[in-house]
Amino acid sequence: MKRAQIVLLAADGRSTRSIAKEVGVQPRIVSLWRHRYADHGLEGLQDKPRPGKQPIYTKTTDKRILKLLDKPSPQGFARWTGPLLAEALGDVDVQYVWRFLRNHKIDLAARKSWCESNDPNFTAKAANVVGLYVAPPAKAIVLCVDEKPSIQALERAQGYLKLPNGRALTGQSHDYKRHGTTTLFAALEVATGKIIATHSKRRRRVEFLDFMNSLTAAFPGRKLHVILDNLNTHKKNEDWLKAHPNVQFHFTPTSASWLNQVEVWFSILQGQSLSGTSFTSLKQLQEHIDAYVNAYNDRAEPFVWTKKKVRQRRFKGRRITQL
């Protein structure tokens, strides 16, 4: 567009400087296109071929990198890295490999994980559990029960660290002293969100049934629907169930313990109460957990079971295979 303006203004007899000022370019640019047009006409306004260095790497190189990523990593290595790819290709610089991976948003270090249930009755079991959440039976108590085993009472040096730049951080030493472990049995009441918990040295069937006895005592005369995962100690308790006809067990599908709401609470417990703490005895750990349970129950609210649209990016042109 500017080239055409320069030629038309020059045909009107305008000076090079006045044309440059009006078009908004340097006078040398006006001189260039005036001479080009004078010597070659309209063809002179076209760009001339610009010779340059031929690219070392082409689309063929890119295809070679992608093809190599589909192959297993070298023996002894968990995954491909930029240097390993460059070494396997032999004639491609590692900097180009990294640049190619960045441009195509391929992160060799990031890992995806998934869990697929092979339970043939997954739909029926999941619907049963979710049904207890969204429409619990009238005048019945729905409890989510599970154990958090082997919680360690670790004693670590802790405090504030002041960095040379003046910033202060909380920190703890890598060294620790172990004071034993405790297993926490917990039941989450779905209607209120409150927790009933007790400590045990082990997580055998006898400890599980002792905890169930304490739950029946906490809700005398009430019908209890108990949601459990598929741990062996949770199953084959027919004799105990016959002695407690007001209790009914509901099991989550295989490899789907995430359907049990008490697992969500265990995650909250770990993040808000256990991570980054230090204990000088097992008793101190147990008292610390009990204090957190009491504080949690003071403000407990039921979890809201919702369903929303799942948005997941597909692996375009990629196939996940089990090695």
From TrEMBL:
It holds the Pfam family DDE_3. Signal peptide: none annotated. Residues 142-286 form the Tc1-like transposase DDE domain. Coiled coil: none annotated. PANTHER family: MECHANOSENSITIVE CHANNEL MSCK (PTHR30347:SF1), POTASSIUM CHANNEL RELATED (PTHR30347). This is IS630 family transposase. It comes from Bradyrhizobium iriomotense.
